[in-house]
Amino acid sequence: MTDELVHYSVTNGAATITLDSPHNRNALSAQLRRELRDSLLRARDDDGVRVIVLTHTGPVFCAGMDLKEARGAEAGAQGVNEFPEILERIWASPKPVVARLAGPARAGGVGMVAAADIVVAVREATFAFSEVRIGVVPAVISLTVLPRITPRAAQELFLTGNVFDAEKAARIGLITSAVDAAELDDEVDRYVRALALGGPRALAATKELLAGPRHAGPSKEGFAEMNELSAGFFASEEGQEGITAFAQKRKPSWVPAE
C-alpha cells in the first residue's frame, strides 16, 4: 500500500491540507496531484470547514511538476491537462485559502501560491518561474500569477527565470507577507482567525467580486450592479444574523466556538 502524500485534517473550522512528499521536494507527481485535488474538493464540500490552509512538510513548499515523470511523456501525459483543475479549485474555492510557506516554491508551486487568497512565507523562502530554463512556458500558472503581480515584474521574472526572495515576492504582490520563521505559525493563525469571522456566503461572494472583471471606474451601471449585490446580502438570512449579532453584542452564529 502506497503511503499518502497529502494529509487532510480539520480543527476549529480550518481544514489543513499538507503536502508530504519531501523526498522529491513536494513535486507535483501524479499521486500528489490526485490527492491534492481530492483534498481540495473534500474541504470545499465540508460544511464544517470555514478556511483552508495549504502547507507542507520538509524544507520546500513545492518544486513544481515532477520532471522525472514528465521525461519522455507525450503531450498531455505530463499532468499538464489536470493541473489547471488544482489551480481552479484553489482560486475559485468559496472558502478562503491561506498558503503557509516555510520554504521555496518553483514553477507550478508558485502557481498554487498565486491562486491562494492569503500567502504567508518565511523571509528565507525563494521563488522562481523556472520554466523557460528547461525549454517550457509558464502558460497555465500565468492565469493565477499575472492577476497578482505587476506587469514589469512579470516581464522580468517570467523571461529570466531568476530566483527572487520573499521580500520581493511581497513587494510585487505574489505573497501577502514575509515573516521570520519563528512568527510563521502565529501569522497564519492570525489570518485564519480573521477569516473565520466573516459570513460564509459573504466571503464566497466577496471572492467572486475580487476575481471578477475590474470596472474601468465608477459608472452608473457599475453602481447599479454592486448596489443590487449589496442589498441582496443585507436582506439575506446571513446578513440579518450578522446585523442582529452586532446589535446584541454577540458573535454571529457562523463564528466557530473557541
UniProtKB/TrEMBL annotation:
InterPro entries from the UniProt entry: ClpP/crotonase-like_dom_sf (IPR029045), Enoyl-CoA_hydra/iso (IPR001753), Enoyl-CoA_hydra_C (IPR014748), Enoyl-CoA_Hydratase/Isomerase (IPR051683)
SUPFAM superfamilies reported in the protein's UniProt record: ClpP/crotonase
Signal peptide residue numbers: none
Pfam family of the protein (one): ECH_1
Family according to the record: Belongs to the enoyl-CoA hydratase/isomerase family.
Protein name per the record: Enoyl-CoA hydratase family protein
